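I keep forgetting this: the sequence line spells out the residues, with the fold written below as integer tokens. I include a record here:
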Amino acid sequence: MDTNVFPPPQSVDEVAQLVKRLYQPGNPQVISSIQDQLQTLQRSSDGWQLADALLGYEDVNVRFFGALTFTVKLNNDGASLDEQNAQAVLQRLIHWLVRLVNQSESPMVIRKLCSTLVTYFTRSPVRWQRPLFHLICSFSHGDALPAEAVENVSLHSSELISTLSTAQLVSLYTFSGTFADEIGKIEYSYPSQAGLHVQMEREVLDVSPMLRFGLQSNGDNSTKLRGEALRCFLTWANYAQPIWPTKPDTLQYLQDLLEPAIQCLLLDDADVDALDVFIDLLESYTSFFQRHHLDAIASIIRTHFGPQLEESLRDQGAMFNPAGQLVVSYAIAVIEDIVEKPDGQRAQVTLPLLAAILKAPGYPGDDDELSTITIEFWNTYIEYVNDELFSQDSHDDAPDWLGSAKSVTSEVTTLLWKKMWTPPGEVTKQWGDAEKDGFRSFRTDATDLLVSVYLFLTGEMLQQLVQLALGALQEQQWRALEAAMLCLNAVADNVLEDQMSDNILAPLFNSALFRTMGDFTHTIPTQTRKTAIDMLGNYGQYIERHPEALPDAVRFLFASLETAAFANISAKSIALLCSTCRHNLTGELDGFLAQYQRFLGGPTSDPYTKEKVIGGVAAIIQALTPESAKVRPLMALLENIERDVAFAKETVASGGDVELAQLTGVTALQCLASVGKNLQVPDDVPINLYDDDDINNEKKARFWSSEEGNAVQSRITGCFSILEILGNDGEAIDAACQVLKAGYTETTPGPFVLPPSITVNFLQQCSVTTPQLESVLATACTLIHQHSQVGSVRIDAEVQAIYQQVASFAQALGQPREDPGVSQTSIDVFSRLFPKYAAVLFDSTPDQINLVLNFTLQAIEGSDQLPKRSSLDFWNRLLRAAGPTNTAVKVTPEIAAKALEVANAYGPSLTQTLIRQIGGLGQRSELDYLSEPLRALFTALPAQAKGWVEASLWSEHFPPVVPGVGDAEKRRFMSQCVVLRGGAKTKEIVKEFYVACRGLVSSY
């Protein structure tokens, strides 16, 4: 042994005492100091000597530390060992492994030594040939054999294995498993790495007989050996999955072990559950199994695990059972046969067991874990069915298995429905949060599954669910009824796509369902009524087509609105139903107004319910014709809002409850916004071919510009007076913005289509410290955008005022980083000026232009992503407006000339900023955004852009880069930019240059 690596040990006892103290309770600062000392010793030049000496110490923790020290030295210095020293280190490690295993050392130390040997294999500059065989030979010999002696061993590994002790074999399984696991983490990219994987192909020749010996072992220690062999086998299979898919001959060595491994499933004395191994393999590596292996597992399920599972389901319900997990994993693995060969063994073995799980007693989330596990299989089943059917041509014959699949999924629908019944109160009162969350999660997963099943069964499934609901209603089985309605709610979107489904739904909606739900003298579970309320919101389109169902629905919802437990969901469903069925409810509007008025005085009137219900009433008002018919009911709604505004103002003025005044005022604005939103013309409004839109729009415009129409708008804008006391309330500001935006998207005049000056005045009342200023600026952006559309009215004066105000915000901030949110939305306003209102920017004073442009450049240099992206978009628009063709941003020749003047003036600064970011200062996620203005530069000003980029690349402000990027690389990047002239591939070269500058690639 080379004494340079292992000189005589010194002061080992002192190190051992430090290690012992490390594992004793004590002062954390002392422990930290000891750790620092030990880490220094591990990395010291005599660390090899220290590690070797500590492994011979009497204390187990000290020996573990010795093995760990070997690992540290190999990671730090292993690659620099010469051949002689590398062989010396290997010999000492093998010596200690053999010696300590023979001395019945602690498993903790043995595992660490095995791990250290694997580290040696990956870090040593000298290739360790046949590591597993080397260890087998050394164990057989009784001490570490030199590498050259191993080469002369003529016996096969299978002959040597039979001579080893149980402890020796266990250590070999530990080493082999760690070996496969660690090599599996190494990429296949470079020759040195690929060489390790190639050696694994030879290593399997020694691993496979060793694994077979353990899997087929019998005798006193066979249980332990089988368990360790199974674990090691699983690790090797997991290694092989991504590495050997194209190496069938090599993989066959492991596949040949499947048969003895499968036999382990039948042994009851295994200390390691073979089930877990096969569950893992079936779930992650189905292609590893050959057909006869899968048939063998099916036979074992039929004869062994199936009866065991059935007995467990009878005695304990659907509590977790590994046999159930095996059935699920196996069924997913053979899904094709289960679907397409329903009479075959695989389907006949698994499907009855999977159905039995769902039939077993218990509640998901509590004492039923298996039902939740089966959801994965049924999702796989229906996904396979749907994929096969949807991939068929229309003229193809129906597959032979179609009838069986319908029968299976129909049964599953019924079973899932039963599993979704909410437990009785005496059960749920014992539940904690975990059980409640588990049950909710199961219902969510089950209803998602039923949506997929509906795509297959369609009307048949709908008929089934309706009959389940009607049967439960007749028998007053409220929990069953709730589950049926929950299932119907889940498929509502798909059902409503086909109006042919209306005939199937009719018996349910024409039944006494909603009359019964609305009769609060009946004792019905709260959850059942809640699900019924949701159903009305989900099936609004059906009710719109069948208004005869409306009276019961509306009565039920308003009755529920007065009950605290149902108020919120009732308000939501009222809003949805009124919006959907607005044209059918216009005759009931006075009744709705009266009910709303009565509701306002009740205990369930709160901000959420008030906003939802008033929005629903407003949706009905929208359906009234002519426009004049909307005034009276709309005024009635506004009176309630004005009443709240007045109350809030008076409360503050009289020194009353400020919090109550604030809540009332904010709610008033939110209700006003809800009215505005619901007065918008629906996107799906039917088109009347006999109407003249121009005449109708002219009539609307005349009405809303008349004295009567102006009066309504004055009442709406008058509600903004609440901001006199709530001007520093973010919620109030946000609600006011929603009111303003309610009219922006309308293409015809209406009560909320307010003059642009209202938005401008609102913005001008704000300062840079106004809460939710971002919302106000976003509202201004939307206004400019709407009036930039083709055919829209120009609002130059208003846009000019907006620009001046926003520029003052930029001036007040000074730097974008002072408030990234306000900075971003301010820059968005500047971007929206292009192309229609670009003159507003270019015709402002030089100082103001300078302020705006420098502010955007600072944002690009900053670390906040959103202002940076907005600024990059701004410069992209400006530069494209300056181009000779300006096809992307079409502006007049006068504006193009002014844009070109600005581009020439600020081009050098902008280019330097962009190149600094591309040169490594920016984030990788920002490169696409950074590329756009660079492309625009070379598109609009190719000659100038070349000079600006060149100056920026060799500027003193160019960021420091890795040594591999020098003048040649910079010239290459610049020449590529010039050649591409702003083409789409500019993005690619920007990314390549960036990663080169950051040192993320080996060469550029």
Remarks:
- DSSP finds 53 helices and no strands in the chain.
- The radius of gyration is 38 Å.
- The chain has a mean pLDDT of 91.
- Residues 648 and 662 are 7 Å apart (CA to CA).
